[in-house]
Amino acid sequence: MVIHTPDVVVPPDNRILYFGRDRARFGFLSHFYHSPITLDGEGWPTVEHHYQAQKSADPRYGAAIRAAVHPGLAKRLAAPPAAPRRISRDSWFRRHGEQPRPDWHEVKLDIMRRADHAKFAQNPDLAALLLATGDAELVEDSPGEPFWGTGPDGAGLNWAGRVLMEVRSQLRSDGGLQRA
Fold it and tell me: Which of 97, 123, 142, 147 would you call most buried, defined as having the most Cβ atoms within 10 angstroms of its Cβ?
């Protein structure tokens, strides 16, 4: 399969801040971007839906996440029940008196890696866009997210961006896509 490399203009600082500054051009990097994936025989409308669904093996929970009309709702449904009320008011776990899987913090990064890889491996147009970012640093400049993004002080871990850069590197080395 030959994929035509799109014209992607990377900002002069060689950093793509896809949550805020560069969202209009690079929003496809977001886990909320509508890009259907299939993992373990199940289809999901976004990476975020799949990721949040992995917090519990309860089929009722998975069905609620899959039925969420947008990824923001999937995230709100997945809120931990002990979180402040403003965060957990829509929590499926709170409503059902349940807890997320106990190993969540140990497995969440690998779950995201797998889902992001599926997103780009299963959506060749998005893979071409990701590859066209070259060696730019990919940054989720989310002020509210210090693990996946840069957090309120800009010093967050940026795991969302780091995983995307891993996936980009893996796609290049796999040779699964030919750039035209």
Answer: 142
